[in-house]
Amino acid sequence: MKLIDTVKMATTTLMANKMRSSLTMLGIIIGNASVIGMIGIGQGAQELASEQFESLGPNVLFVIPGSRQSRRTTFETPNTLVLSDAEAIASQVPSVENVAPQINGRFLVTVGNRNNNVLVTGVTPDFLPVRSFVVEQGRFFDDTEVRRSVRVAVIGPEIASQFFPNQNPIGQTIKVRNVNFEVIGVMEEKGSFLGTNQDETVYIPLTTMANQLVGRTSQFGTQVSIINVSARDPNSIEAARFQIENLLRLRHKIVGEDDFVVETQKDVLNIVDTVTGGLTIMLAAISGISLLVGGIGVMNIMLVSVTERTQEIGLRKAIGATEENILLQFLIEAVIISAAGGVIGTAIGVGGLTLIALFSPLPTTASPVAIALAVGVSGGIGLFFGVVPARQAAKLDPIVALRSA
């Protein structure tokens, strides 16, 4: 019997049992859609993280208080960095271009009868070039206002829309912890970063933050939450890291473990890529289990089919069909079911990723490699799990088959 005739016969048999064929394909459909969807979401998360870290600014280093061990074992931010550390970095590290210390805190912000608990950040004017922030409306505060601890604020665009709908926020007054601040600028939209909405932030002079809102929290000076540093060029990043570490070790008189961490943009991105990559593999593996379950379902239904079609098998063998003909027919049926389920599942997975990309910030795309892998694996599963029922059908004795029918 020709292969084309065997394929036609297998297709006709499957079409004659549409409900059973559809239910058999369901496990494969769910498995393929899950694998493609999970891989697409994982890759989208990696891409989104890369975009967010690129938006931090070029050649950026972050000096973070506390050792790696202390940051893993405590919920409170260690107070090991002070403002004088940032000033020393700016004046004594030749490979550094700008230094922007900052103090973070969450306070109640009030305008009239509107209030919200938002992130308030005390910074210096160097924050703009280091972190690539842009003022869209008005202006940013200058060094004179920082030295004088002036009560001025630059707000994020979402703060502006929340507290000053349909009016110009410039010149208006907001209360931060019951302290009045004049709004002098509105930042350009920046988006979220690692779960923090950067557009829902109030920026005030660092000295105003230290002296009038948080107070003195370290015996060695004004405590800072982080020191943002920009190197002179990409080739200076490692040199800047080395010089900053040596300087701070001398200043802090460190003989053991450092009480600070210097991370580059690339370091943090690598950590996030490792985490998201691991999650993607884990999600794909979990989704792959459903493909395995679908394959077992194919084998189960095909075994039932062999039992139901003993008369057909016996009759075909009695009129001259060989074991190879019977084996090939049942294998082709299993492969058609699995491949068709793979194609439908792929379409559902791609459609789901398209909807996620349309209605969420996650840039999800269906990887051609993931599609080819999912369809290929589903077809292979059909072939693998179809072998047992196909061999059972091929080994049936025609006389026994006709009698049992």
TrEMBL record:
Entry keyword set: Cell membrane, Membrane, Transmembrane, Transmembrane helix
Membrane association type: Multi-pass membrane protein
Primary site of residence: membrane
Domain annotation ABC3 transporter permease C-terminal: ranges: 285-398
Transmembrane segments annotated in the record for this chain: 21-42, 281-306, 326-359, 365-388
InterPro entries: ABC3_permease_C, MacB_PCD, Macrolide_Exporter_MacB
Pfam family, one: MacB_PCD
Subcellular location, record wording: Cell membrane
Residues of the MacB-like periplasmic core domain: 21-247
Gene Ontology MF: a single term: transmembrane transporter activity
Keyword Cell membrane applies: yes
A GO cellular component annotation in the UniProt record: plasma membrane
Domain of life: Bacteria
PANTHER family per UniProt: ABC TRANSPORTER PERMEASE YTRF (PTHR30572:SF4), MEMBRANE COMPONENT OF TRANSPORTER-RELATED (PTHR30572)
Family: Belongs to the ABC-4 integral membrane protein family.
Protein name per the record: ABC transporter permease protein
Species: Cyanobacterium stanieri (strain ATCC 29140 / PCC 7202)
